[in-house]
Amino acid sequence: MAIAKAERLMNLALCLLGTRRPLSKRELRESIEAYLEAGSDDSFNRMFERDKDDLRELGLVIETVENLDGEVGYLARRDSNRLPPITLDAEEAAALGLAAKVWQQARLAGAASGALQKLRAAGLPEDVDPYGSHGALEPHIPVHEAAFEPLMLACRDRRPVVFDYRKATAARPETRHVEPWALECWRGHWYLAGWDRDRGAERVFRLSRITGKVRARAGRYTAEVPDVVTVRETVAGWAGEIADRSALIRLRSGAGYPLRAKAVSVRELGDGWDELEIPYGHGLDAWLVEFGPDVVVVEPAELRADVLDRLRAVAKG
After folding, report:
1. Kind of pairing, strands 210-216 and 161-165?
2. Pairing outcome for strands 210-216 and 273-281
3. Inter-axis angle of helices 90-102 and 109-121, to 10 degrees?
4. What mean pLDDT is predicted for residues 282-296?
5. In which band, very low, low, confident or very high, does the pLDDT at 245 lie, cut at 50, 70 and 90?
6. 46 vs 283: CA distance, rounded Å
7. What's phi and psi for 149, nearest 5 deg?
8. Residue 284 to residues 185, 250, 287: CA-CA distances in angstroms?
9. Where do the H-state alpha helices sit in 19-169?
10. pLDDT score, position 58
11. Phi then psi for 165, rounded to 5 degrees?
12. Helix, strand, or coil here: 312?
């Protein structure tokens, strides 16, 4: 049924685009086989009106013209249904090429490659190679998580999802009902920002902690989706990039160079240990755990407790 309707819509679009004069319903019915097979005039009229509305929703500009005899005709002028020529300068073409390379490990790689080929056919400058190297360093964002593609589609279609999520401090995953907003990559990890229906608040989920399949659900969003800037700030905050206070830690000498790079101050304690004051924001506990026994949290107490909880969860497996 879906294929038959798609073929009928294509035939109707070709008729309306190929004519130089308005075509009446009678002429369109005689030109399209599916309309000839309609059982009655009423059945044909309903089918034609639905098809015409569907084509308009897809973006086809269909004009309705009445002739001197009062008969109504339809046509789709080519100049009204033609996009302007695509022009890209060297910098824009380079940006598209780099964007395509970013997705080379995802299933979107084929679509990205095809899009660039179409742009080349549409007039991309011949002296610009969108696949070429544009510097010593190139962006490379791995997409290994199976949850990436279904969540990307859910964000695009504004479709609620359900998935099992294991927090860093939990031994077992929990089922989460989420209205996905956007995906962001931070420090080489993908995060989903969205509205957690069970908790009635916005939350950020690290894709590597999603277990099992992401299941889409029917229905509309119950919470307002913020703008892109707000979502990025939310992800940045939950990923530990927004610090509003300081923490005091002890770090083994010769270890933890990323922590030393962010330190506000460093003081030698002796016996192979240094004391560092570092910015403290959400997610710092998860980062400190990665350094294992080389880090000891001095203050604040809540950060020390969070790090210990994460270490205990790791020890339990």
Report:
1. antiparallel
2. unpaired
3. 160
4. 85
5. confident
6. 58
7. -65, -50
8. 17, 14, 5
9. 25-31, 33-36, 41-57, 90-102, 109-121, 148-157
10. 84
11. -130, 130
12. helix
Check: CB of residue 286 under 8 Å from CB of residue 170. Answer: no
3-state helix, strand, coil in the chain (%, to 5): 40, 25, 35
Rounded-to-integer distance, Cα 122 and Cα 87, Å: 8
- What token pair was written down for 119? 């742009």
Tokens linked to 268: 């030698």
CB burial class (10 A; 0-12, 13-18, 19+) of residue 285? buried
Lowest-confidence pick of 233-247, 251-265, 278-292: 233-247
Closest CA to 61 of 74, 47, 48: 74
Q: The tokens 């009678």 sit on which residue? A: 26
Euclidean distance between CA atoms 204 and 183, whole angstroms: 10
Structure tokens at 70: 């009062």
**3-class DSSP assignment, residue 169:** coil
For tokens 């033609």, the residue is 82
**pLDDT tens by residue, 261-271:** 889 999 999 99
CA distance 110 to 104: 8
Residue 228 pLDDT greater than 90, yes or no: no
| Contact yes or no for 101/61 (Cβ under 8 A) | no
Q: Which residues pair with 37 in a beta bridge?
A: none
| Phi/psi at 157 (5° precision) | -90, 0
What element of type H or E holds 228?
helix 228-238
List the strands of the sheet with 72-75, edge to edge: 23-24, 72-75, 63-66
